[in-house]
Structure prediction request, 218 residues.
Amino acid sequence: MKVKHSINLSKGLTFGLILGLMVSYHNFTLGPWVYLALHGTYGFLWLLKDHIYPDKQWEEEISIPRSVFIFALVCLYWIGPFILISRGTVPSCPLVASAISLNILGVFLHFASDAQKYYTLKYRQGLITEGFFERCRNTNYLGEMIIYVSFALLTQHWLPFLVLGGFISTLFIPNMLKKDQSLSRYPEFADYKRRSGLLFPSLLVSKTNNSKQTKSAA
Prediction:
């Protein structure tokens, strides 16, 4: 089995799980419906993304015990909808609007930057220093984090934020640092690193870029 099979199974089951929780707890209020729309749709979009432009890091072959562990790990994200639906709390309209806005932003950054990375590397190997990655080296991770923040907001509970924090500290950040180490083999990476942020976009404008812009203006 591959790593992606465990991840995809969890993503694909999310919509049905949330709907099942709504039926079990007879909770069909605004919060669960919005959560179903956001998280459930995200799961299907993930499967579509994997079909159109798969991520190489999830292609690794793994043992069945490890695949079960990864599946259980990813399913920790289901704590959010369980808390929201079982407690019966109703998020306010401003909170719902904020969660939807964050979700749209996160989906845009995550899926669009992954598409740029996939199709750029398909035809040209090397550093990607433009578009979504011009000022941020991990726009896709930033987008994914924003997506899960939007889910956590709807639950109005600290536990989903703790789960997300665990993923960020044990998976996302180590992967970003590992990526930096791999990209350091390119001579131009040092300059790119200075003018881009690891996770958040850098506002620093390099002297080289300023010089180019001045010449262009002249």
